User: Which sequence fits this backbone?
């Protein structure tokens, strides 16, 4: 039954989520005692360290800490950052839009450009365009994103200084209007978004290309051709929509890679999103923030996969009929 | 149908992104309101690590001092000339004959940036509450017995025994009681965040704090000292040190206060940038595990490390000059004992300095009965001169130093097995306890300590016996050193105190719990085309830094924008560029589209699989 299928998928997602929650807790507990660094604070006495421990609930036994953690997380209370003393949620909400902006634009561009390139390559299989695009995609796919980022900076910000090398907007400037501010952000977005797009492009291209090649050799395409439909129309109306299905899965699976890439790209470009928040938290050993960002990333990946399953359900009649 | 479905998904994604754009500047807007007409001159300082909170009760980032030192005064400030005690909140002070009481006269002109006068109550509050509970400030006031405030302009501090830290070593900022006193200590040490502008007595005050982005400090309207040259000081956060240094080269920022040793030379090569290296109150040391049987019954280490002859041999075998040249690219300063040369008033090169003399090292080992085994490590009575050496994964410098030490020590028959570990792991190894007693688990490691400006008590304290179970990580205990430590802490006379400190340094050099490798440098750089009036300070001369960062705001009063410098970064062009780029992309896209249309209109062959 359809409902059962959907419920099964949702259940699996919830189970994964639960596992992530539990794993998250223990992951950060095996990384060493977070208070050990306090002992190197000038002037911190043993009592003060004990007090800090009790402040963070670190003096309780592990089971007690675990119960606290699960309860708080389920109530969506991610705790207070050890360093900034701001609620972790606030820090995440502060950074999230920037990441969505970067990742969203990058993903949209990569999907559009990648699949478009895929269609071109597949329809000209073996041709020069195919070879060229294939080579280009394999190159960007194989290049680490930090390398791409640094090259982009070196070329477009240092050698030919036409674009800002980092940050999300010109710092310390009072903008005359909202438009000026948006324009400034857009300008700062170009390089990181390009890096993001290049990082993701290759996979979309490869999947789209092979999917198109498959579809183009199917009988119904031959039939459409035979009844006299123009080639262009066949490709656009009949081949592309059928070839798009694997792309949906890919977008979801890619979300994990995107989150990872965001950390590197944001750090290189000083982009103040979740990735950078994560990076700073690692440097500061700010465990509540780390736990929070991990949770957000994991929930994102799980939700994206669930969404892909659901989309598939509507897009692919074969799933519904099972 | 399906094409439209895809288009809808794409459109939704684009809209989500657009929505994000819309919400973003709105979030940032509250920070960019108010102030000025674009003629503001600002000193832009780039950094890769920014404070996570401005609340001095809980802040743990060292970078906070960069901000606080411009926003607040200490009871006694430091002179940028030579770091000696200088008027701060207190205009003058008098030390009683028994040296246990110091009477401070406050500057009656001092006013908080909100117009409220600074009084003795603020001082008492700050020393008692911030000095008692501030994460980075606890400990400085431990010697204080009582703080009396006979009137608004007098503070009388009595200590349990003479404590020279009262003048020049009381590193607790004076904060306004009428603001902080309203909150309970529980709140202050909890999630309290101070309101902006951050009310203080320094020449600048924080007016914008956007974590991970920018800290903007504007002039304190009530400031009655000499007028600062810049209207604003901005600390701008970048994702990493590479980003900061690039920003300096591109002119996005005017100054960096922490340059990486590896890029020091490259920055120096830029004609518009001046990069400087100055000694800091910190050192990097090779520490030995000297925990005694009675202090640490369960400690784990190679007992050979506790033979003084072995440590002295290491001292002679290690070429610290070469280490500085190679590992620090010559930017650091060769160490000579446990008191950094930064502490000018008290520093002298110790007599026993362990110059690089591998022959002496071999001789010492021979004399002590360590048998030379050629390429193998020396041995004696079943013990082998083979030690674990831990370097920090967080510090590439210590890893390089470790390699060089191992290489050089091998020449005299001492083996070091290097392992690179995280700071957490290293701390675990040193603070490990069994049955409530320290049980360190290491032979040797490389790490460092940093001290306070001017007063050397803290950096000398880490080797006292009292710190075993506390900060001590060599677990060295020498009653003579401890007695001298207490004595110097109560000596106000600089010459006399220097003698005592020199004796302490000599004791540590003799026994060598730490072989101090280098005195860490302060590497800084600024753009000469943007900032004028910089003279090296704290102390003045070639040992000084650019603006006496984290210590004194005074140098900032003397510098200003360079002639002809504009506030625009070279990097960030105008919006025209982006419009041009969008246009170019559109043209290319349109071109491709038509090309594709034309080519696809042709009658293409069907493909058949064979």
Assistant:
């Amino acid at each position: 039954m359809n409902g059962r299928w959907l419920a099964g998928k949702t259940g699996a997602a919830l189970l994964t989520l639960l596992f992530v929650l539990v794993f998250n807790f223990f992951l950060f507990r095996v990384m060493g005692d977070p208070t050990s660094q306090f002992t190197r604070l000038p002037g911190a006495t043993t009592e003060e360290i004990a007090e800090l421990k009790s402040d963070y609930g670190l003096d309780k036994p592990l089971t007690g800490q675990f119960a606290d953690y699960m309860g708080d997380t389920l109530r969506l209370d991610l705790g207070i950052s050890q360093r900034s003393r701001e609620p972790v949620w606030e820090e995440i909400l502060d950074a999230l839009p920037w990441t969505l902006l970067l990742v969203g634009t990058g993903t949209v561009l990569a999907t559009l450009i990648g699949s478009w390139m895929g269609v071109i390559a597949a329809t000209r299989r073996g041709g020069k365009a195919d070879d060229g695009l294939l080579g280009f995609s394999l190159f960007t796919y194989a290049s680490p994103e930090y390398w791409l980022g640094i090259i982009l900076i070196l070329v477009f910000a240092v050698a030919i200084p036409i674009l800002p090398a980092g940050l999300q907007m010109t710092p310390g400037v009072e903008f005359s209007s909202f438009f000026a501010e948006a324009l400034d952000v857009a300008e700062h977005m170009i390089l990181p978004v390009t890096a993001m797009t290049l990082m993701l492009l290759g996979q979309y291209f490869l999947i789209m290309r092979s999917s198109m090649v498959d579809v183009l050799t199917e009988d119904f395409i031959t039939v459409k051709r035979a009844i006299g439909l123009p080639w262009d129309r066949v490709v656009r109306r009949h081949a592309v929509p059928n070839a798009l299905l694997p792309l949906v899965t890919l977008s979801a699976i890619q979300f994990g890679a995107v989150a990872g890439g965001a950390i590197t790209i944001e750090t290189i470009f000083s982009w103040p999103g979740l990735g950078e928040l994560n990076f700073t938290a690692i440097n500061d050993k700010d465990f509540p923030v780390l736990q929070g960002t991990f949770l957000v990333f994991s929930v994102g990946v799980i939700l994206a996969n669930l969404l892909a399953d659901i989309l598939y359900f509507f897009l692919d009649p074969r799933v519904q009929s099972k | 149908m399906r094409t439209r479905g895809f288009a809808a998904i794409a459109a939704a994604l684009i809209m989500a992104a657009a929505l994000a754009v819309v919400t973003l500047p709105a979030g940032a807007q509250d920070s960019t309101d108010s102030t000025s007409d674009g003629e503001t001159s600002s000193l832009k300082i780039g950094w890769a690590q920014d404070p996570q909170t401005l609340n001095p009760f809980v802040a743990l980032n060292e970078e906070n001092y960069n901000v606080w030192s411009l926003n607040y005064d200490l009871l006694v400030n430091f002179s940028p000339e030579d770091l000696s005690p200088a008027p701060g909140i207190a205009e003058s002070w008098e030390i009683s004959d028994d040296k246990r009481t110091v009477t401070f006269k406050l500057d009656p002109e001092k006013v908080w940036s909100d117009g409220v006068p600074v009084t003795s109550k603020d001082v008492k509050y700050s020393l008692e509450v911030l000095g008692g509970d501030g994460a980075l400030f606890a400990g400085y006031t431990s010697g204080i017995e009582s703080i009396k405030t006979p009137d608004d302009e007098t503070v009388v501090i009595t200590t349990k025994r003479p404590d020279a830290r009262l003048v020049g070593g009381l590193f607790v900022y004076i904060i306004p009681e009428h603001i902080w006193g309203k909150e309970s200590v529980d709140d202050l040490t909890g999630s309290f965040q101070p309101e902006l502008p951050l009310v203080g007595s320094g020449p600048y005050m924080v007016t914008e704090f956007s974590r991970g982005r920018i800290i903007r400090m504007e002039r304190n309207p009530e400031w009655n000292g000499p007028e600062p040259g810049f209207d604003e000081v901005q600390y701008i956060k970048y994702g990493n040190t590479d980003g900061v240094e690039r920003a300096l080269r591109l002119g996005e920022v005017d100054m960096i206060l922490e340059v990486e040793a590896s890029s020091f030379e490259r920055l120096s090569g830029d004609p518009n940038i001046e990069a400087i290296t100055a000694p800091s109150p910190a050192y990097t040391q090779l520490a030995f595990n000297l925990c005694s049987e009675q202090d640490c019954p369960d400690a784990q280490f190679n007992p050979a490390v506790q033979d003084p002859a072995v440590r002295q041999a290491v001292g002679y075998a290690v070429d610290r000059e070469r280490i500085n040249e190679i590992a620090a690219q010559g930017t650091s300063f060769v160490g000579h004992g446990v008191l950094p040369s930064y502490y000018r008033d008290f520093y002298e090169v110790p007599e026993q300095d362990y110059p690089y003399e591998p022959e002496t090292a071999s001789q010492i080992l021979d004399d002590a009965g360590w048998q030379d085994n050629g390429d193998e490590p020396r041995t004696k009575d079943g013990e082998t001169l083979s030690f674990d050496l831990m370097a920090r994964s967080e510090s590439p410098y210590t890893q390089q130093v470790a390699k060089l030490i191992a290489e050089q020590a091998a020449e005299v028959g001492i083996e070091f097995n290097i392992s690179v570990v995280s700071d957490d792991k290293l701390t675990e190894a040193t603070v490990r306890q069994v049955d409530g007693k320290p049980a360190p688990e290491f032979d040797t490691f490389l790490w460092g300590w940093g001290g306070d400006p001017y007063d050397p008590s803290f950096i000398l304290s880490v080797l006292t016996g009292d710190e075993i179970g506390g900060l001590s990580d060599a677990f060295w205990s020498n009653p003579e050193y401890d007695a001298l430590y207490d004595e110097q802490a109560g000596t106000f006379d600089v010459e006399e105190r220097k003698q005592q400190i020199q004796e302490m340094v000599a004791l540590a050099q003799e026994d060598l719990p730490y072989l101090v490798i280098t005195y860490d440098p302060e590497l800084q750089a600024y753009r000469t085309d943007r900032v004028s009036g910089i003279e090296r300070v704290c102390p003045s001369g070639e040992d000084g830094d650019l603006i006496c960062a984290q210590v004194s705001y005074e140098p900032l009063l003397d510098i200003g924008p360079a002639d002809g410098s504009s506030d625009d970064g070279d990097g960030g062009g105008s919006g025209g560029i982006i419009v041009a780029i969008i246009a170019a992309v559109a043209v290319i896209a349109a071109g491709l589209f038509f090309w594709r249309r034309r080519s696809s209109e042709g009658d293409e062959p069907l493909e058949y699989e064979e």
